[in-house]
Amino acid sequence: MIKIDNLPEIFTKAMPVLQILENAGFEAYFVGGSVRDVLLHRHVHDVDITTSAYPEEVKELFDKSIDTGIKHGTVTVLYGGESYEITTFRTESGYQDFRRPDHVTFVQNLDEDLKRRDFTINALAMDTRGQIVDLFNGLDDLKNHVIRAVGDPEKRFHEDALRMMRAVRFMSQLEFKLESKTQQAIKDNHKLLKKISVERIREEFVKLGLGPHARQAFQVFLDTNLSEDVPDFGGKKDQLAIFPQLKFSPTMENSLWSLIILLLKLPNEQIHRFMRDWKNSNAMTEQVERIINLFDLLSSHALSDYELFLAGEETLINTIDVAHIVGQPISSEALVDRYMALPIKKASELAVDGRFLIDRGMRPGAKLGQTLNKIRELVVSGEVENNQEAIESYLTTIE
Known about the structure:
The protein is α+β, with helices and mostly antiparallel strands. The protein is built from 20 helices and eleven strands. The strands form three sheets. The chain has a seven-stranded mixed sheet with strand order 3-4-5-2-1-8-9. The chain has a two-stranded antiparallel ribbon with strand order 6-7. The chain is elongated, with a radius of gyration of 28 Å. It starts with 8 loop residues before the first helix and ends with a helix.
């Protein structure tokens, strides 16, 4: 049996929670992703705890708790300035929506609880002594970098169809490969993904696309036909097949969406609908539209100083990132140097504003806005210095 001696602080801080449960006569374990990640020497973000205690019994043992998912056996306990999700050992049955169980049955046996988990590497538990409980050879799969469903993969994916996306997401994040029966079960059941909300699919897709092994995972995403059952990807395998062939993959979400849009060759007027179909925020949609617009400009001609100014530093850096990923030849250093040398980089840095023009007799309206834009353009291009005297001198030439 494997025993971990030097546990990260996140576990040692949570250990008293397990000990309180054990001292009251219950079993308690760390379980799931946190155990997997500590064994892989990855950063552990949070810990999940499973116990033989029923939710009401858990609540009696701790002063502060929240009923976050009590119907499914989960209570969030507030202890030592932290919050911990504690879930009663349980089995699940009846998955009418291919996502959530219709029935949850509390059990007193850790073995039964671990059987319902998705993959062997996530079906590991750890007790207060740091000893690992491994009922499904998850440790071997960790060692061999394999993602394998617990038990029958068909059954696991019918219980929760999102697990198919989680499988390829873990491939990308952990740089693991899919076990053949698990991969075949995804291919045989990919249509179940249509039962899952776009928001949940999107979350997994973004993690897949930004992982260090994204290109290899994306190939499996295509090979298993999962791509056919997500928004706007159906029938687009040929275009999307370029992603696994790229030299490297994106590291920022706006770069990922921009890259997908470029691969799909979406016209600019369809970008907003595509982003909406994927339930992206307005802010993300706006970022992506700016990147695509600048990419199109970069592809068609040498950018003027004013086009660089209008783009802004963040959009410029993101667009350069996308251009590198797709192999577009651009002189990125020269572009950044030119941007950094601009006289102003924000509209607010202009030495005058609308009030300045009104004080000099110009009426509010369209002409005022056009004049302000023209002044900004001339300042950016270096034709007029950014001070009130030079700008006032320019104004006398157009009166």
